[in-house]
C-alpha cells in the first residue's frame, strides 16, 4: 500500500492519520526508553545526539559537553560539526578497549564539574560494553549537568535496564533496526525522549491527544511555539520535517512484535551473539574482550585485524569492522575488531565465520 499524507500536519482536521501515527511512535519510544515524553522523530541517531547536546546547553546555560570514549565516533563527528557554530566546547574522553571486569564510570565522573552542561554516553557502548549509569547520573545531578544516553541498537532495550530507570535526563538513538531498511545509509529514524520538565526545550514535533468540539478524541501538533515556523531563529531546533514515514514503519514493526515479542527478540539476539563469542573464545589467536555485552563485542586477534577482515570478505563473509578503520591514530587498536550477531545470523553463518577465522588467524 501507499502512505498518503500531508507534508506536515499543520491542519489536524485533515491529518489525523499522520498525527496518530506520530503519537503512537512517541508512546512506544517513551515506553522502551523509560522516559516521560518523546517527540515525533528526528532524522537519525547522530543528529538526535547532536540536538540533545544543544538542548543541554540551553537548559543548563553552560558550555562544556563531555563525550564518552565509548560513543560512536561518527556521532562524535556530527556533534562537533554542529557545535562549531555555537559557544559549546566539546570535551572527548579517550576511547579504551573493553576490559572484562571493568564496567564502572569513574573515569567519566572525574570529567564532570560545575561547568559541565552534559555527559553523553552510549548504551551499550560502541565497543559493546554494557554499563549501569546510575552512579554517573547521580554525579551529573549533583553538579547540575544533564546525562544524555545514546542507544544505537533499540532492540537492546528489550533486555536491558531502561535508561530512564538509571536516571537519564535525555535518551536519544537510532531506530533503524526496527522495521527500517538499511537503504545504503538512509533515510533512518532518530528518537528523542526526555524528562517532562525539559519539554519546552525539546526539538522536533510533538503530537498530542485532545478532544474536538463534539467531544471526540483526536490528535494535534502541540507546543508549536517551540518550532521555527512560529519562532524562527528563536526556535528550539531547526528540524523542519522529520522521519515520519520511517517512524510509522518503526511503530508497525514494534506493534507487531508486542511487548513479549520485543523481549524475545532481544533474548534471541543476545543468545546468538553469546554462541558466536563462545565459539571464538575456543579459537587460538582470538580473545573476546567483553564481559557483559548484548549482540556486539570486541575481539583481539593475534595479527592486524584489517587484513583478516579483507581476506574473509573475499570469501563473501562479512566478519566485522576493524577498529583501525575508525581510529587510525590508535596503534593499540590495530589488532581489534568489532563483531555483531543478530536474529538474522544463522548457525551456518557462525560456523562459516569460525572456520574462516581459524584458517586466517594463527
Beta-strand content bin: 15-25%
- Class by SSE composition: alpha/beta
Total domain modules: 2
Q: Find the count of extended strands (DSSP E, 2+ residues).
A: 13
Cα distance, first to last residue? 53 Å
What descriptive keywords fit this protein?
7-stranded mixed β-sheet, 4-stranded antiparallel β-sheet, 362 residues, alpha/beta, Aspartate Aminotransferase, domain 2, 10 helices, 36% helix, Aspartate Aminotransferase, domain 1
Structural features, described:
With 362 residues, the chain is α/β, with parallel strands linked by helices. It folds into two domains: 12-253, Type I PLP-dependent aspartate aminotransferase-like (Major domain) (Aspartate Aminotransferase, domain 2); 258-354, Aspartate Aminotransferase, domain 1 (Alpha-Beta Complex), CATH 3.90.1150.10. The chain has ten helices and 13 strands. The strands form three sheets. The protein has a seven-stranded mixed β-sheet, sandwiched between helices. A four-stranded antiparallel β-sheet has the order 10-11-13-12. The protein has a two-stranded antiparallel ribbon with strand order 8-9. It is globular.
Question: What is the secondary structure topology, with strand pairs?
Answer:
Layout: H1 16-33, E1 37-38, H2 45-60, E2 64-67, H3 73-83, E3 89-92, H4 106-109, E4 116-122, H5 134-143, E5 146-151, E6 170-174, E7 190-194, E8 207-211, E9 217-221, H6 228-231, H7 244-281, E10 286-288, E11 296-301, H8 305-314, E12 321-322, H9 323-326, E13 336-340, H10 347-360
Parallel strand pairs: 2-3, 2-4, 4-5, 5-6
Antiparallel strand pairs: 1-7, 6-7, 8-9, 10-11, 11-13, 12-13
